Amino acid sequence: MTAPLIRLDGVSVRFGKQEVLRDLTLEIFANRTLVVIGESGCGKSVTLKLIVGLLKPTSGEVYFEGAPLSRMRDAELTAMRKRVGFLFQQAALFDSLTVEANVAFGLQAHGGLTALAIRERVAERLREVGLPVGVEGKMPAELSGGMKKRVGLARALALNPDVMLYDEPTTGLDPIMTDVINELILLTRSRRPVTSLIVTHEMRTVHKVADRVVMLYPLARLEAGESQILYDGPPQKLLTSLNPRVRQFVEGEARDRLSEMRMESESAEMGSCK
Amino acid sequence: MATLSAETELDAGVPEAIGLASVNSREPSAFWAALGEPFVAVGDFAFFALRAWSGLFSRRFSRGELLRVSSEIGVDSVLVVAITGLFIGMVLAVQTYAQFHSLGLDTSLGGVIHMSIVRELGPVLAAMMLAGRIGTAMAAQLGTMKVTEQIEALACLGVDPVKYLVAPRFLASLLLLPLLTILADALGVVGSSLICLKVFRIDGFHYWKHTTDYVSLWDLFTGLGKSIIFGAALSLLCCWRGFRSRAGAAGVGRAATEGFVLSFTAILVLDFFLGMAIRALGTMVWQSGNKLI
């Protein structure tokens, strides 16, 4: 079996008195898409931030291509981060810069490309995420939530990363835009070999893009001796899991989805009556 | 004054400045944690300041960002600093005239007021105006960037956030506060002289003679030296609080308040110690009581 590209080895994270992750071991393999699901507060986003070195574990180690992050010097950490694209939950666009400057930011910061090449790369990435021509000069405040996410994705892809980390990529978006973002994730993977780690609680995303699913559970609600990972396997088997907590989560999400669909059809009917 | 809790940082899950790695220490007892908080905060600030200082030489920030920040700090502060300097000079003249007049020392007012302005009031008031106008804005801007994950996004793009965001603000404050102090000094002298010479009709020749006798270039330069240190302190403290902002609008508001209160206090405390140091230096190098330059 091939060595994992990223490995979290017995990682624990504690913020003051609050323990978020305990003895978590997780392997992420190259060119695969891993989706991490779970309720709020179970440490999904913390896991992403550990991988890119934004947080340090209280104990345990994170390895990137076998190299421990804790022993990396600043230059090595920067080189690693250049290979990792990160789509933040709220896109985290630099609000004082235009869309074009946002996408070009990483390219300009690391040099190596001419101004013309940067402009071409930016246009290419914006085209890839399906943004219309003319959006380059807009400020982030002028964009909708879905457009911000797409610009965030274009910025993350600008440096041609080997790894893409998505933090709740579809949160706060309507169902149509959720599908658009899911399609973009698939499209990104089909265009270039990329390892993806997606953190979400949307079952739609799980079924659409995952090669493998890991379900985390909040530590505060675990019983003694239980592992924080409740499920680790293919998405198809998630539905037939015998673990009652996994079933509860999946069924809860399905119920939410159903009521969402009902509301959508009702609002559509009301619209047609008018 | 708002407390600077180490646990506050940890609760927010806030990555530290650079490397943005959070300090997840083993849990000490509540007593020891509380006792250690000020030391943790001082250590954290020292590390942050060192990082910003090294950022001045790394050229990680863009010239455009430096110009934008300089314009905000310098150009946009001219009016408020000028008004402050002018009216402080005028108020000093009004308040001191009666006492000096009763002693028949009207013409000494020039020396006394101008020395107060050049040594103390110019640098301190310009710094305080900047702390209120720009320091809070810096803390709020960086705090907003923090809570909207823009600072983390910078780190993810391989850019050191302290070097990119703090270094230009630090440099602009270092360079521009002395210039604003010169403006405050000049307007203070103009304001006080207007009142003394035009309203109270003090003899101009002796008024200016006393000024040149009492106020030396040493006073002017030490005042400007202090303003450089005030500029460094206020920019670093406000940026630091912004970087350590907690989540939400309340967190950003609190960061802005903490930035202002801390920098305001630091300016006064530093002013006292710098005053003592400058006095000791003057006494040591030159004969006490003599004109220095």
Could you characterize the architecture of this molecule?
- The complex is a heterodimer of chains A (274) and B (293).
- Chain A has 274 residues and is of the alpha/beta class.
- Chain A has a domain at 1-83 and 199-274: Rossmann fold (3-Layer(aba) Sandwich).
- Chain A has helices spanning 44-51, 74-82, 99-110, 115-128, 145-157, 175-191, 203-209, 235-238, 244-273; strands spanning 6-15, 18-28, 33-37, 59-64, 67-68, 84-87, 163-167, 195-199, 212-216, 229-233.
- In chain A, a hairpin with a 2-residue loop joins strand 1 and strand 2 (18-28).
- In chain A, helix 3 (99-110) packs parallel to helix 5 (145-157).
- The model of chain A has no long low-confidence stretch (mean pLDDT 86).
- Chain B is 79% helix and 0% strand.
- With 293 residues, chain B is mostly helical.
- Chain A binds chain B through residues 13-18, 46, 49, 52-58, 74, 77-79, 81-82, 84-86, 88-90, 92-95, 105-106, 109-110, 155, 159, and chain B through 7, 10-13, 15, 18-27, 148-150, 152-160.
